[in-house]
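lol ok so funny story. i was supposed to be doing the assay writeup but got distracted and ended up predicting the structure for this chain instead. priorities right. anyway since i did it might as well share w the group, maybe its usefull for someone
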Amino acid sequence: MSSQPASIVFRPKAIAIDIDGTLTNKKRAINCNAVEALRKLKIPVVLATGNISCFARTTAKLIGVSDIVICENGGVVRFSYDGDDIVLGDKQKCLKAAEILSKHFKIEFLDLEYRKSEVCVRRNFPIEEARKLLPEDVKIVDTGFAYHIMDGNVSKGKALEFIAERIGIDTKDFVAIGDSENDIEMLEVAGFGIAVANADLKLKEVADMVTSKPDGDGVVEALMFLGLI
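and the output, tada:
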């Protein structure tokens, strides 16, 4: 880590931040200190989650940040609370992949009727074995809360590029903060990537900074390091 002041290290024009495991702990309780810190920011804050659109939009409204959200790991984006979901992923492709996995494992769907671009299932089978069975155009990621079967062309990183172009902010002017492997592409396309202390090892390897504190406390630490609060 550089010894220079954070304001010299990176001056973000916007933030993309994961929710579960980043703003919340493993029990999914949100960190109020992190919420208070985000409310102080004078730049756009884009929530990027594996969860569904209504969850992301409601969380954004309660926290008091931008209405722009990335949902379903990048399979859905939305630019306003009252706007429409823009679906970037192919759910049918994911359902066919789940059917393949169901021949080998017990598959338990989660929120199936609400998801528009992917399939979410319970973490009750070995993910590495599942990856060997999936076609090349589909992937499965572990968020630490569930497995997500996704269109291979979808990621939080690609969704961030989509949003950045629409709002006129280069992705390299974003700082991205996350905790799990579904955040890897988002950190890679951002100008500065931060992994909280409880993050997946794979994410820490691509991050520009790893906080000393976990989840929401790590978010506050990161924002302080960047000179934003």
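The chain has two domains: 6-87+154-225, 91-151. The chain has a mean pLDDT of 94.
back to the writeup now i swear
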